[in-house]
Structure prediction request, 97 residues.
Amino acid sequence: MAQFIIRVEILGNASKSEYEKLHAAMEKQGFVRTVTGADGKQFHLPTGEFHISGDLTEQDVQNKARAGCDRNFKRCAILCAAATSIRGWNLEPVTES
Prediction:
């Protein structure tokens, strides 16, 4: 199963509420805003960054990201990278509520 990290930036002077709307739109496309570490713990990704895994190509993932952006924002920049290993530093841990 392929893994991908996607960065989406809303171009212009985007507010926190616009990024919250982006996060919701991307979730509807199957993206998540967390990654799981080697120790099994989950961590939040930075604002505008997403993870997805599955039987997908980079083009599939880019198309899904564009679908999330196109419905809500006039201009977004998208970077999609296939990932064989994901490492983070100083990411906020997911806490159970």
